[in-house]
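Quick start: what a row looks like.
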Amino acid sequence: MNQTLTQFTAQCLTKEQQPLLRKFYRNHNSPMRITQQADAWIVRSSEIVAGACLSPVDQGYWLTSLFTAPGYRKQGAARFLIQQLQLSYQDSHIWLLCHPDLSGFYSKLGFRQTQDLPEALSSRLKRYQQHKQLIAMSYKAQERELQP
């Protein structure tokens, strides 16, 4: 399940390969984690430059732990990874929780702000919002096709 664009390759890691993403997060002092049930994804250039996880939730997936190495930010690695996730999970809903400042980035990728969340994410969002400013966004391929 490898996808390639000019300089990037995306890959869904097997459970045995997930320590590669853990090491990437650790090497960048990132607090990101991989949960037991998550699908872990990476983007490579000459090395791992970005990673993210998709965890199953009711009616879809929750996008978490998106992190791009500082030297590769604003070069399209995160966008490339999200686009590969959208292709690979095109029949599923994808939700994420993010700071409002990131809504423009995700909107360009077809995500829309939402209040309609699976219960597990709704309760998590309420809990997280007690300490940080977050919004919920969702993506569904069929919904994007209907958008102007």
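That is the whole record. Residues 77-88 form the longest helix (12 residues). The two ends are 31 Å apart (CA to CA).
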